[in-house]
């Protein structure tokens, strides 16, 4: 194996696939990146057995790829990334010098690093499932960011560590919950299939950071895996087995109190109130809302109290007092893009709904907590 390529192109491709590598992989070969030179292109593969990324770098004028000899090797991911990054040259040359000893050079710098044969690397099936749909990368990123934060990190409930993605009647829905809150985003797409799967939120966040906002993403899914296709890259991930809660039944349709206000005003007030935390580090924020006043407060026997009045808001319905996690509402507000939000309350001990005024496709639901004040 022997090739030369633009340092920038090679490093960017390595950096993208390396996001699938886990530092604690039980299979030694999976700490490396598989490099295959064939058909006038570079094929890169990395995996932690749950997420696998396959990328192709084709020869063109920009990447200056020149292939002298085809071949393959697996090189430790952290080493090859550091080596390519540190070499002070616009082009990188990679050559298997002796056995599996690989020479990586550029300018006046040369590194030699031991690789392993690709026969030691697990065989990964990248065959494409039949059911699929397409979405712009920009919309996909928004749906991920606006929902994935609401999952739980408790492994005793694996279903709730993932985001439920469904397509029904041409409506794409992302939904996430940790049983105390819910985040849901919907969008109309061109897809006739009925699709339902759960993917780990941690994987979705990695995908959101990898994909180019200006590209289109095709998502293909089977009962065991999901694949994200964009440009010359495939990101494949395992699915979480199980039945996700029916989020439709959680969202109320009738409300006794509705307020509308600037999201920044409320977020700043909640951030200030959240400074007051209980002994276990939890911040409970209280709303007292009527036609004449909107009070945001917090209280802790160990720390003290905070009281603030919000002046500008629109109100309809009945007065209400309600307590909830300040963290949950702050994260919901930050996930909303618009500057004006509407909060709809069903009752003092019932879930309330947070939406952007002009976007009914995004819904955040938060359960209240019981307090003694």
Descriptive overview:
The strands form four sheets. A nine-stranded antiparallel β-sheet has the order 14-11-12-13-26-25-24-18-22. The protein has helices spanning 7-17, 77-86, 137-145, 201-210, 263-273, 326-335, and strands at 2-6, 32-38, 41-47, 51-58, 66-69, 71-76, 91-98, 101-106, 109-114, 131-136, 162-168, 171-177, 181-188, 195-200, 216-221, 225-230, 233-238, 257-262, 284-289, 294-300, 304-309, 314-317, 320-325, 340-345, 352-356, 359-366. It has three domains: 2-120, Roll (DNA Polymerase III, Chain A, domain 2); 133-249, DNA Polymerase III, Chain A, domain 2; 251-366, DNA Polymerase III, subunit A, domain 2 (DNA Polymerase III, Chain A, domain 2), CATH 3.10.150.10. The chain is elongated, with a radius of gyration of 25 Å. It is built from six helices and 26 strands. The mean pLDDT is 93. Helix 1 (7-17) runs antiparallel to helix 2 and helix 5 runs antiparallel to helix 6. The protein is 16% helix and 44% strand. Strand 7 and strand 8 (101-106) form a beta hairpin. It is of the alpha+beta class and 373 residues long.
């Amino acid at each position: 194996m022997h090739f030369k390529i633009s340092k920038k192109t090679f490093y960017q491709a390595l950096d993208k696939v390396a996001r699938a590598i886990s530092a604690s992989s039980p299979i030694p070969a999976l700490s490396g990146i598989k490099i295959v030179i064939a058909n006038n292109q570079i094929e890169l593969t990395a995996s932690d057995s749950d997420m696998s990324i396959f990328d192709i770098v084709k020869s063109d004028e920009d990447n200056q790829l020149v292939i002298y000899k085809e071949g393959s090797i697996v090189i430790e991911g952290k080493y090859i990334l550091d080596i390519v990054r540190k070499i002070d040259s616009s082009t990188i040359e990679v050559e298997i010098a002796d056995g599996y000893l690989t020479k990586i050079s550029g300018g006046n710098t040369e590194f030699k690093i031991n690789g392993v044969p690709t026969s030691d690397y697990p065989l990964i099936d990248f065959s494409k499932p039949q059911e699929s749909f397409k979405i712009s990368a920009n919309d996909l990123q928004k749906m991920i960011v606006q929902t994935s934060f609401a999952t739980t990190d408790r492994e005793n409930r694996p279903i709730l560590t993932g985001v439920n993605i469904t397509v029904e009647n041409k409506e794409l829905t992302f939904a996430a919950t940790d049983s105390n809150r819910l985040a849901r985003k919907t969008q109309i797409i061109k897809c006739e299939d009925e699709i339902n799967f759960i993917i780990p939120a941690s994987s979705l966040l990695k995908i959101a950071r990898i994909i180019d906002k200006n590209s289109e993403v095709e998502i293909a899914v089977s009962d065991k895996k999901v694949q994200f296709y964009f440009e010359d890259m495939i990101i494949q991930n395992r699915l979480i087995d199980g039945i996700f809660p029916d989020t439709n039944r959680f969202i109320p349709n009738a409300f006794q109190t509705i307020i509308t206000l600037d999201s920044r005003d409320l977020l700043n007030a909640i951030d200030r109130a959240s400074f007051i935390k209980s002994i276990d580090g939890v911040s409970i924020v209280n709303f007292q809302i009527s036609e004449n006043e909107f009070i945001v407060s917090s209280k802790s026997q160990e720390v003290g109290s905070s009281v603030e009045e919000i002046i500008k808001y629109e109100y309809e319905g009945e007065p209400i007092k309600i307590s909830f996690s300040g963290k949950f509402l702050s994260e919901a507000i930050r996930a909303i893009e618009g500057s004006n939000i509407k909060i709809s309350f069903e009752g003092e001990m019932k879930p309330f709904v947070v939406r952007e005024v002009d976007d009914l496709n995004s819904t955040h639901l938060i359960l209240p907590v019981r307090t003694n004040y």
